[in-house]
Specification:
It comes from Gelidibacter salicanalis. It is found in: Cell membrane. The protein is mostly helical and 312 residues long. It has one domain. The protein is 77% helix and 0% strand. The protein has 15 helices and no strands. Helix 7 runs parallel beside helix 9 and helix 8 packs parallel to helix 10. The longest helix is centred in the N-terminal third of the chain and has 33 residues.
Length: 312
């Protein structure tokens, strides 16, 4: 950057990004600031921020593993397994059927359905090369998912408090009903430490379903197995939990790692916000948005009803 003059837009962007390093910038506030900036200026580092989101989110997730124990992670994962299988199957089936009924582009239907069923933008990124989606189809699908994630980050904690959900109930609900890992963790972190632990564990177990679902699409779309992306960072998350449970004296540094991971998550949500300008979302169209909202509301309400009727 030496020898080049930094623009006012770049200075503003960098300054606000640095503010995410301070405690007063919670994940929801960072997202709002990012959204506001996206409407005022065009992201001057769009390619760089996209790559940063991918890496920072993985680092944040791995770091959060140092705040969990093996026993609690196994407990959360075991309780969420059947729930995860049922919700993924139902969400995918409903999304594919509803999208076909609305006459939406087939590849957009598939990406929105998989993104809603598994883990938002990560699932879309994994599926898109398999079904040979073009840039416009991908941007429409990811734009919708990120928009709904932004809404979820604010309304889910409010609904949880209104219904007096326990930490465990809220963590499970957010992991099932919110698309992207960043918003799941952001919403759960606002709700409480136990909610964060349950949500992160269940959501990452859910993310592993990218592999079998991708294999299904390879079989039916004629794609290549080589294009399937394996979420290796989940293995590092598991190793972090094991280290936090069994490595002597890890408790000395673990809280600092967890705190740094939450700062990284805050920065991720700021960066995501800066990519959501209303002008770009206008290209989405009513039908894909209607599909995404319909499937999301259905699975959110249904999973909440099941959780309220289940004793944890």
């Amino acid at each position: 950057m030496f020898g080049k003059r930094i623009s006012k837009a770049q200075l503003l962007y960098i300054g606000l990004a640095l503010l995410c390093l301070f405690p007063f910038m919670s994940p929801p506030i960072a997202l709002v600031v990012g959204l506001i900036i996206a409407q005022v200026i065009e992201n001057p580092f769009s390619d760089l921020s996209h790559k940063a989101v991918q890496w920072l989110l993985k680092i944040a997730v791995i770091g959060l593993g140092f705040g969990m124990s093996v026993s609690s992670a196994l407990s959360a994962g075991k309780q969420g397994f059947l729930f995860t299988v049922a919700s993924i199957t139902l969400t995918l089936s409903l999304g594919l059927a509803f999208g076909k009924l609305l006459g939406i582009d087939k590849k957009i239907i598939q990406m929105i359905s998989v993104g809603t069923a598994i883990c938002g933008g990560s699932a879309i990124a994994a599926l898109s090369p398999i079904i040979k989606a073009d840039a416009k189809q991908i941007s429409i699908s990811i734009g919708i998912v990120f928009l709904l994630n932004s809404i979820a980050l604010f309304i889910f904690p409010a609904i949880g408090h209104y219904l007096d959900l326990s930490q465990h109930q809220f963590g499970l609900w957010s992991a099932i009903a919110i698309h992207d890992t960043s918003s799941v963790i952001g919403a759960a972190d606002v709700y409480g430490a136990k909610a964060l632990e349950v949500a992160t564990t269940v959501k990452l177990a859910r993310a592993l379903w990218i592999l079998p679902i991708s294999m299904v699409f390879v079989l039916f779309s004629g794609g290549s197995v080589k294009k399937i992306k394996t979420p290796y960072f989940i293995g590092l998350f598991i190793l972090a939990i094991i280290a936090n449970t069994y490595v002597p004296n890890i408790e000395i540094v673990a809280p600092y790692i967890v705190s740094a991971s939450k700062v990284a998550l805050t920065l991720v949500l700021f960066l995501i916000g800066t990519s959501l300008s209303f002008s770009s979302l206008k290209e989405v169209g009513a039908k894909p948005l209607f599909l995404a909202i319909g499937v999301w509301v259905f699975i959110s309400v249904l999973s909440l009803v099941v959780i309220l009727k289940t004793t944890f």
